[in-house]
Amino acid sequence: MRQAKLILKLITLTVAVMLTIAAFGCNEYVPNQGILADDYIPAPSGKIKLQYTMTVTEAEKRSINDWISAFNSTYPDVKVNAEFNVSPQALQAQISSKSVGDVFFLDETKVYNYAIVQKALMPLDYYVDAYDIDLSNVFSAIMKMGVCEGKLYMVLRDYNHMLLHYNRDLVKAANLTDPIELESSGEWTWDRFKDYCRRLTTDEDSEDKVVGASMPLGYTPVSVMFLEGWGGQYYDTAQKKVYFKSDERVLQGVNEMISVVEENILNYQPVDQNGTGANSINTSAQARRDFTGYRSAFATLVFPSFGSIGKEYESKGTDWDIVSMPATPTHKVGTGATGFVVFNGTKSADAAAALVLSLYTEEGQRAYNGQEGGSVPNVRTLAEDRFWRVPFADRRDDPVNGKNYFAFISFPEADTFGRIECVLPPEIATIVTTAIQNIVPDVINGKISVDSALEKLEAEANDTWETIYAG
Fold first, then answer.
1. Residue ranges per domain, the chain?
2. pTM above 0.70, yes or no
3. Domains 2-159+337-382 and 161-335+401-468 belong to one CATH topology
4. Tell me, what DSSP letter sits at residue 110?
5. Nearest of 238, 190, 187, 248 to residue 215 by alpha carbon
6. What DSSP assignment string belongs to 228-263?
């Protein structure tokens, strides 16, 4: 009976691997691709090292330490040594020399490279079942960002998608319905948002200078809303092609993105793909429409900047709130997160896997995201809990001054990969992200037409894809 069971498992595993799309970036999760024997029972114990490859704040350090403490309450036989401020360069060198920690921090754009190209990451699939992890309770878009070629390699620490903060005083002064009310009734659409931007943008000679909105349109977690939001599909990993000019729905979305800048109702913010200012990108005053001295009624936001932006509003005595990104005809919202992986050469696989997978449990999420430095929990059953809702009052407690925390967990079915590197090979992703960063200023400045820019992008990306990955 046992031999028959093992044969059946081998057949099942083989079929699953054959059916897996050998694409690039993040794919659908194909469960039960175990690497250990059926009768293996994990026994987490011993010492493991966790390396955090970002400049850590005290708040972030508390999040990690609280997570480790919660983990130790379940697995007291495991000693976790946390090492902070490890540079990405040092991490790569340690991976090459096989001296890297058992667990290390990664962002979603690096999963394919480390898992498939460098083969430096251990698949976690067996341990999902062994530790009884309920992946159906994890927001699916986040979970998929840790999956490559059907296997789970990274566990995401939080749930983060783009949304808007807005000046409620300006909305009230214009006698406009609060966008949160429109959101609750399904009327907070892209067309409605554009109408609000028109009504809120003032003339140049106005004493109170206001622009309807500011968005970093060259930042792919924002621009992906336009690439996919009108029903288009800008990439096909099976065919190894991208579609920008040839997919009319993608073209329509890009035209929508550019039109709000041409209409002078949205301030184009130049950024790089980390979301910070990008002086190297071609963004003249004309492309930005030079809204110097203007206040923005709406602007993009992710949870990590929620506290600082809110404090800035309140320091000026301004009424404010947050609301979901407006729904495009095919509702899409750019989403992303960072997380933790297990080194493929670890000698403490049971303990390392138990630690990272604990982030997909309620206990792990409460510990990691339950204080300043934490974020939005990635498990559905905690979405309505209050422990992560800091530092401002909740609307449920204070209907007048409380904030719309629902925006952080709204429309998970609309979430899509915000980073191009998650869905395309690195060489192709570089071509696409560079073009997206430049298309708005180049078109606005008259350097190139939308059609020509997208045609050029499509040709360059597809030629490169065919040349590099032929056969």
1. 2-159+337-382, 161-335+401-468
2. yes
3. yes
4. G
5. 190
6. HTTS---EETTTTEE-SSSSHHHHHHHHHHHHHHHT
- pLDDT tens digit at each of 471 positions of the chain: 433 433 333 333 333 333 333 344 455 554 444 456 667 889 999 999 999 987 788 888 999 999 999 999 999 999 999 999 999 899 999 999 999 999 999 999 999 889 988 999 999 999 999 999 999 999 999 999 999 989 999 999 999 999 999 999 999 999 999 999 999 999 999 999 999 999 999 988 888 999 999 999 999 999 999 999 999 999 998 999 999 999 999 999 999 999 999 999 999 988 777 777 765 555 666 666 678 889 999 999 999 999 999 999 999 999 999 999 999 999 999 999 899 999 999 999 999 999 999 999 999 999 999 977 689 999 999 998 989 988 899 998 999 999 999 999 999 999 999 999 999 988 999 999 999 999 999 999 999 999 999 999 999 999 999 998 775
Tell me, which fold does domain 2-159+337-382 have in CATH?
Answer: D-Maltodextrin-Binding Protein; domain 2 (3.40.190)
- CATH level 3 topology of 161-335+401-468: D-Maltodextrin-Binding Protein; domain 2 (3.40.190)
**322 and 301 in contact (C-beta within 8 Å)?**
yes
Task: Tokens for 433, please give them.
Answer: 């992200």
Q: What token pair was written down for 430?
A: 């570089």
The single-letter code of the amino acid at 16 is A
